[in-house]
Design a protein that fits this description.
The protein has 107 residues and is mainly α. The protein has 5 helices and no strands. The protein is elongated and about 60 Å long. Bound molecules: heme C.
Length: 107
């Protein structure tokens, strides 16, 4: 009986996880392509610094850290729509990582 309860709780947890991630990435997916100037107008230097830390801590789990200069903002825009959900970052943290990357992207 106790086992059944544990299973039910686990199933609910998985359901919640599956239910939440597509929603979280929807915000990221719907972000417009922004250039460095637009990002600098929207985010503070502190936020961009936080983004750098989040990037270093979350983007080297599956592969080596990919340098921000390795891609243009346009390329990053589509890459990050796949990678931010992969890194399981929430919308807020995902946007800070994105801000850091776009500011430092290949120009
Ligand atoms: C859960 C594992 C995982 C995490 C976490 C992850 N990645 Fe990736 N990444 C992959 C895989 C797998 C590929 C290769 C396949 C692909 O391109 O989808 C990849 C490819 C890439 C590429 C090359 C894409 C291209 O088109 O050339 C870049 C750049 C990248 N990741 C950046 C990031 C950044 C930035 C983060 C953090 C937000 C991140 N990754 C987090 C798994 C991950």
């Amino acid at each position: 009986m106790k086992k059944l309860k544990t299973l039910a709780v686990m199933a609910m947890g998985i359901g919640l996880l599956v239910g939440c991630f597509p929603k979280a990435s929807e915000v990221i997916r719907s972000l417009p392509v922004e250039n460095k100037k637009q990002i600098l107008a929207k985010y503070s230097p502190e936020q961009i610094e936080t983004g750098e830390t989040l990037f270093a801590n979350n983007c080297a789990k599956c592969h080596k850290l990919k340098a921000a200069e390795g891609h243009t903002p346009e390329q990053w825009n589509s890459i990050l729509k796949r990678m931010i959900p992969k890194a399981k970052l929430n919308d807020e943290d995902g946007q800070l990582v994105r801000a850091y990357i776009i500011v430092n992207a290949k120009q």
